[in-house]
Amino acid sequence: MENAEKLNDKNYIQILKGIGIALITTFIFLLILAIVLTYTNVSEQIINPTIIIITAVSILIGSTLSNLKIKKNGLINGGIIGGVYIILLYIFSSVFNENFSLNLQSIIMIITGIAFGILGGIVGVNISSK
């Protein structure tokens, strides 16, 4: 029984690491996007779709890397990583933006986050089994 508890603790740590990796990756990609928008003539209309893509890729990377270590339940663990990431994102957004509201883009972001978390979990588990 003690080994099962240690295994679950390790899983939680890996899930937290996956969320952290996704957040750091998002920050780096958004910094690159800000630099590109500042120093080029790229249209600002690309901001919303690019943010969705950055979020999806970041969650995919975080979920894949964390599930490489967990080696099981990639679907569930990936979904948790994507879901918690999105929840944290919306908590930060609501704190720092007084005009924050849930809209169609928010719903797309939630679905995309969880879906890419699940996909990353599946990829991570399958890569590690080889």
Give a short overview.
The chain is mainly α.
Structure description:
The protein has one domain (2-128). It has four helices and no strands. The chain has 130 residues and is mainly alpha-helical. α2 packs parallel to α4.
Topology:
Layout: H1 2-39, H2 47-70, H3 74-96, H4 104-128
Helix pairs in contact: 1-2, 1-3, 2-3, 2-4, 3-4
The percentage of residues in β strands lies in: under 5%
The 3D shape can be described as globular
Which segments are poorly predicted (pLDDT under 50) over 5 or more consecutive residues?
Answer: none
Through-space gap between termini = 28 Å
Q: What composes the largest sheet? A: none
| Count of runs of 4 or more consecutive helical residues | 4
Helix content: over 70%
Mean pLDDT: 88
How many strands?
0
Number of domains: 1
If you compute it from the alpha carbons, what radius of gyration comes out, rounded to the nearest whole angstrom? Answer: 16 Å
Succession of helices and strands: HHHH
Which structural traits does this protein have?
mainly alpha, single chain, 130 residues
